[in-house]
Structure formats: C-alpha cells, structure tokens
Sequence to fold (184 residues):
Amino acid sequence: MLFSRTAVPFLHLAFAALIPDRTEVELLDRLEAATWVKRAASFYRFSVPQDDGLRSSLLDAILDQSDLRDRRRELEHIFECRLGDDFRLEVHRYEKGDGIGAHTDFLSPEVRCVLSLNREWDSRHGGVWVLASGSALQDSPVYIPSLSGTGFIFGTAINSFHALSVYSGNELFGLTIRIPRLST
Fold:
C-alpha cells in the first residue's frame, strides 16, 4: 500500500491497493450476498449489514491481507498519537440516492481508514468523498473518487469534515476501519 500524505484541508493519507485484488473480489462477493438494513437520518442515508458478525469477519480478512496493522507505528508517527490495538469496522452500502452529509466524528477520538469497494464506479454516478475544513465543504476541498480498492486515512478532529456525495449507481460499499486514539 502506498500512502500519499496531504495536509490540506486537514492531515490525511490517500491510498490505493490496501488489499490484493483477489481479496477485494472475495469481499465484494460477500458484501453483495449479505442482507442489508436501511439507515437514514437528516444527513445520511445508507444500509448496514443485518448480520453483525459480517463486520468482524470482513475486518479479519482486511487485516490478514493488508499491512495496515503492521503500519500502526507509522500512523502513530504521522498523526502524532498512540493508537490502540482494537481495530473496529463499520460497513455501509450506498445505492441510488444514498450518501452522507458533512460531519467530523470528532467526538470519537480515532484514526479512520475509509476503503471503497465496488464493481464499476463511475464519476457520473457521484459517490465522491469530499474532505474540507468547514461544514459547508467550501474550505480547501479535496475530492477523492470511490474507485474500488482506494481510500483515505484521517484523524477525527473538530475540523475534519468529510462527506460522500449522493450516489446514483448500483452498489458502492464503504468500509471504515476505526483505530482508537489513546493519546495525543
């Protein structure tokens, strides 16, 4: 996995190829076969797996097939904090009309790794991650396409606004690996 480190609009790392292609296909097969439950509120709309056990098995596969756990010390250095060992995974499925509005997650002190998985993402369908230092997403925005196997890593903070533009394609999966921040 190759990191591209950027400080604008806030410190984040963009990456490609977190997991091998064969693992990506296996995860997509499992995600597509899962049963999903819709979740919606004023600023988000997506589905989550009905089976909570799916998250832990997907996380195990990702950690077994990536060097993310081995690079924890590097992430601690980059984000200037100590990180815990208990990685957790959130899994979202986005379909037509789904997305997430601007938010920071700053109440959860973590470093997060957001991985996009899908069969055929196309920019015409939206589903673009937007990073900005303000809630209007106007302050030095950075746009990260949801190409399968790519993503970004960031530390939750008061100014770490991120959003996923409304998606109009078939299925797009967002897997967020949450690593607890122990101290700064």
